[in-house]
Amino acid sequence: MAPRLKIEGKTTDTPDWTCKVQIEDMSRDILSLKRKIQFKNLILVDEQEQQMRATVYGDDIDYYAGKLILLDTYLISTARVKVSLPSYGRIIHKFYWVLYKETLIEHIKPNNELEKSLHRPNIVGVVLRCGPSKYVGRTQNRCQIERAQLEDQMKKGKEFPVILGRNIGIFDLSLQTRFNSAIRINPTYPQALQLISWC
């Protein structure tokens, strides 16, 4: 088996490696303006809270569509390591990974006894009321999507959906999303399943 390394331990010259990461964020499919290539970006975080961007291109997006789940943990091996260029947006690390069909990806289930999943969420809760949105800053699209999903759940008779959140600000009884916040509605996380069965 390839040696287990953290994100910081891998460069373009590292031959064989395995890294345990959680998917912290996942973009929609994007079409590059210059080369007309479809791609999707993921933000991965390891056990030391180091972040890394990973990119999936073209046909590999469909290949990974049902395999990569936001906030789940994976063991990733043999991804291509590339140098990050400032012309491709905000750099979070000097390298990024390219995931392709030959990349070895093992999904770690939340209840796995041998290999623990990473980063427990900072909130698991029941939504009692979905109040009006308030925006601070320029990016509001993601918040709108999450709010629409919550309202849709409530209209379908699921009065109290359960949410799992990461990097969420908590103020009194209100939640505040940030640029790196992630929210899943009625997820399969063990504590969330307990709440769902209670609701």
Polypeptide structure, described:
This protein folds into 2 domains: 7-108, Nucleic acid-binding proteins (OB fold (Dihydrolipoamide Acetyltransferase, E2P)), CATH 2.40.50.140; 123-198, no CATH class. It has 3 helices and 11 strands, in the order ββββαβββββαββα. The chain has helices spanning 60-64, 141-155, 190-198, and strands at 18-26, 30-31, 38-45, 51-57, 73-77, 80-83, 95-99, 104-108, 123-126, 162-171, 174-185. It is globular, with a radius of gyration of 18 Å. InterPro entries: NA-bd_OB-fold (IPR012340).
Summarize the structure.
InterPro entries: NA-bd_OB-fold (IPR012340). It is built from 3 helices and 11 strands, in the order ββββαβββββαββα. With about 200 residues, it is α+β, with helices and mostly antiparallel strands.
| Strand portion | 35-45%
CATH class of the largest domain: Mainly Beta
- Distance between the amino and carboxyl termini: 43 Å
Report the uncertain regions.
138-145
Q: For this structure, what is the CATH homologous superfamily of the largest domain?
A: Nucleic acid-binding proteins
Shape: globular
Mean pLDDT: 77
Query: How can the largest sheet be summarized?
Result: 8 strands, mixed
Total domain count: 2
Number of helices: 3
> What's the architecture of the largest domain, going by CATH?
Beta Barrel
State the main characteristics.
199 residues; alpha+beta; OB fold (Dihydrolipoamide Acetyltransferase, E2P); 2 domains; eight-stranded mixed β-sheet; three-stranded antiparallel β-sheet; 11 strands
